[in-house]
Amino acid sequence: MTTAAIIVAAGRGQRAGGGVPKQWRAMGGRRVADWTIDRFEGLVDHIVLVLAVDDTAVWEEFNNTKLILAAGGADRAGSVRNGLQALEAYGVEKVLIHDVARPCVSARVIRDVLDALDTLPAAAPGLAVTDALWTGDGSVVTGTQDRSGLFAAQTPQGFHYGAITAAHAAHPGGAADDVEVARAAGIDVAIIPGDADNLKITRPEDFDRAERIMGKDMDVRLGNGYDVHRFRDGDHVILCGVKVPHNRGLQGHSDADVGMHAVTDAIYGALAQGDIGQHFPPSDPQWKGAASEIFLRHAVDLAEQMGYAISNVDCTLVCEFPKIGPHAEAMRTQMARILGLRADQVSVKATTSERLGFTGRGEGIASLATACLVKS
Prior knowledge:
Blueprint: E1 3-9, E2 26-27, E3 30-31, H1 32-40, E4 46-51, H2 56-62, E5 68-71, H3 76-86, E6 94-99, H4 107-116, E7 122-128, E8 133-137, E9 140-145, E10 151-153, E11 157-160, H5 161-170, H6 178-184, E12 190-193, H7 204-217, E13 220-233, E14 236-239, E15 242-245, E16 248-250, H8 258-271, H9 276-279, H10 293-305, E17 308-318, H11 328-339, E18 346-351, H12 357-360, E19 364-375
Parallel strand pairs: 1-4, 1-6, 4-5, 7-12, 17-18
Antiparallel strand pairs: 2-3, 6-11, 7-10, 7-11, 8-9, 13-16, 13-19, 14-15, 17-19
């Protein structure tokens, strides 16, 4: 079935403070809306972002992306109707409707709602109320409320596209959420288990809680790389993209850049995507003498495609000669350029093996590297 998510982001969110709508406030280095959009990437076929007409800069920013844009309505229901209309030509069968201010929604909740629609007309996540409930007058408790059968509603709320579109068209307005619209049209809505971390950012203090949740769920990966090349006749070596004069060269199928090879394998390792030899077989003549930048760029692009940002890399060259110190800064700069990182995110350093082993005997150069990747 073709699936879609409508992310309603046209509200003004004034209670959250900050001087701008809460969905455009920064949280954990990114805006709330960016986090929310990413939660649905790869889980649905289409994403509709409903924006306020006045958010002209945001419209321009998202205009050339794969997102489908729709204008906000006079109220939330109007915004949802516009989002549903924007999907009219896409053959959508299942649609999820989600509040942009819930950036911590888990993949589990999203999948559970989608799966429920295989056999049910509608489904939405909810949490059973477990706290005692009071009624009050200002700061004074005036009574208690039975919590039996009460649930705290969450999003995304899932429906069959045609049914919820018709339900919204027939509804007079004023509904609290899309479940209320569906029920008014006679659609039964199943409650699936919600998630306590799927909070809706409403007040200023909610940003801190959401950041803590994001930190707990953060996907951080480490990868290690190791490479060795022996010396051969020559007048220079290529190390971390820099041509270093030397009375020997390095032997290899490509340009034998032992440092760049180790960093490339570290990135592949963090992604669990094998090594250079699997992506660029040495038996393939097209890679003979190839610049190792090709391999590193491939690893960087693969990380981006899989949704990971490279946080930093650390490369150690093990050799008695040539001396690395005079060239280390140029190597950092070159590697940072290829990786798309700042120079302070790239470390290139050297050590000797105290004249022990093949590097100590001057037979070749070894390199070790570590890469840290973070799900973006």
